[in-house]
Amino acid sequence: MAKINTESREIYGMKCEPYKSMINESLEKEKNMLALIEKDKTGNAYKRLLLCDEMIYVSTLYMAMNSLSVTLLSTKNNDALNDARKTLYKAIIYLEDIVTNVVDAQYSEIEDKVEQIKNTPLSKRYELIRKLGLAIRLLIDAFGENSKWFWSFVELRGRFATVAKNILDWKQGTKDYFDSQSPDYDNTVYFIRLIKKLVDDSAADYRNRYEKSTHRQDDMRLAINYLIASRRICVIIGNADEAEEIKKKALVWREKMETDRKKGLSK
Fold first, then answer.
1. Which 8-state DSSP code applies to residue 43?
2. Domain range list for the chain
3. What is the pTM of this model?
4. CA separation for the pair 198, 178 (Å, rounded)
């Protein structure tokens, strides 16, 4: 049995070599790009978009190594999964560097940031966000429901929702959303629907983490901030009824938070 195990590990190691080589190549690209960013500030936002895309790719390579481990060794490669997790955080951070990590920012407050990537078509932004979202979902599935990172993934998904919202040019997007003749109409509608879902999910996630795990008021505040962001989207796309319902929900959550604070049930 031990001999078979050793052989399996050798086979696994051999099959992982191409992935390790591609990872090292990508990380070298990242290193060179960061050096270029430091040296020449021109077009840095576009360079960070490229870095984000590269990190998504690297994360999939780490996850492929984990899948091989499950197949050949009948066990997860937690080191590879942790590297994938860290790499996806880097991907998000590269986007945060461009469009900020402010959850409930009005578009007018970050318009100058989004302007830095004005030449990146909406279709490319949408594609990048979908790729990042898929990678995050695959990672969480690979870790499984009993992972020690279960509650920390609330932050990962939340920060992803924030950059997904902030990377959209809402001024142009609002026009395209209501113009069925626009070449970007379909992508804009799908993109805004995706953003709305991500923001709503993050509000629920932070509320659940507050209730079931941390009892920290900053989690509840973030939940409320995501509700505010969701309400703004409803206002932008003309969904007045839902906007009013979300407003009422945010008030209820604030009252709940304040009640818990007075009773000493939260930190």
1. T
2. 1-143, 168-267
3. 0.94
4. 21
